[in-house]
Write a structure and sequence with these properties.
Elements lengths: L3 E6 L2 E6 H21 L7 H11 L6 H23 L6 H4 L1
Antiparallel strand pairs: 1-2
């Protein structure tokens, strides 16, 4: 049986499967590992991952997701900057 966590937010009751939260957290950790290891090689995915990570900075249901994403954002910026410096076809305005 899966564990379910019940949260009361305002007048709403929310039930969340904790295994799903752990999977989301693990996925964020793995994406951060890929960024750190691949650096500019991760260039094709930077835009998509930034779009995914930004909303997760406020993900209310799991602190590890928020902290992993917050730690990963500077790595994404570093990878983007390195990509630009190595001639990925974008300019520095893209990094900002």
């Amino acid at each position: 049986a899966e564990e379910v966590e019940t949260l009361i937010i305002g007048d709403r009751k929310i039930c969340i499967r904790t295994s799903t939260l752990e999977e989301k957290s693990t996925a964020c950790i793995m994406l951060c590992c890929y960024v750190e290891e691949l650096q500019e090689g991760f260039f094709p995915y930077i835009d998509e991952i930034v779009q995914l990570f930004v909303p997760l900075l406020r993900f209310a249901f799991h602190e590890e997701v928020r902290s992993t994403v917050a730690t990963g954002m500077p790595e994404l910026l570093k990878a983007a900057k390195t990509s630009v410096e190595k001639g990925c076809g974008k300019d520095l305005a893209w990094v900002k």
